[in-house]
Amino acid sequence: MPLRTLSLDVVGADHPNRRPSKQGKIPRRYEIQLCEPGEPVHLELEPDNPVDPNAVRVLSARNIQIGYIRHERSMLISGYIRDALEIVGIFQRATEWGAIIRISTDGSVPDLPPPPPPRAAESRAYVDDDPGFYPDEEWPD
């Protein structure tokens, strides 16, 4: 029995798109930045992919490729597509490696999970305990 809803990593954001869209060759990272959480994404099999015969392309709502489902999940997801499950996908969020999408395998629109809390390094201000630089109290004129 397939999983009903799951989040998937989309990788390959730094690679160029091989197939130009109607708008030309739009970089994947640029397209990812245009995606909004909750907007639809489409999944397509790419059996002629030279690296992975189970490759699953991820296309934005504007029909521009943003990357691929991570290899570790592509066999599972390509099997779902071949079994004609009604997969519905939405954009979840951009990441440093590409993006995360959310899919359902029963035809329903998946819910977005709550956003992750900010990382500790991002949420605290940098404090230099010993800057090693002590300016003169008065500037020479």
Automatic annotation (TrEMBL):
Lineage, highest ranks first: Bacteria, Pseudomonadati, Pseudomonadota, Alphaproteobacteria, Sphingomonadales
Location of the region described as Disordered in the Swiss-Prot/TrEMBL record: 105-141
GO molecular function: hydrolase activity, acting on acid anhydrides, in phosphorus-containing anhydrides; nucleic acid binding; zinc ion binding
Gene3D superfamilies: 3.30.70.2330
Domain HIRAN residues, every copy: 32-96
UniProt keywords, alphabetically: Hydrolase, Metal-binding
TM spans (from-to): none
InterPro entries, alphabetized: HIRAN
Pfam families: HIRAN (PF08797)
Name of the featured protein: HIRAN domain-containing protein
Biased composition (Acidic residues): 128-141
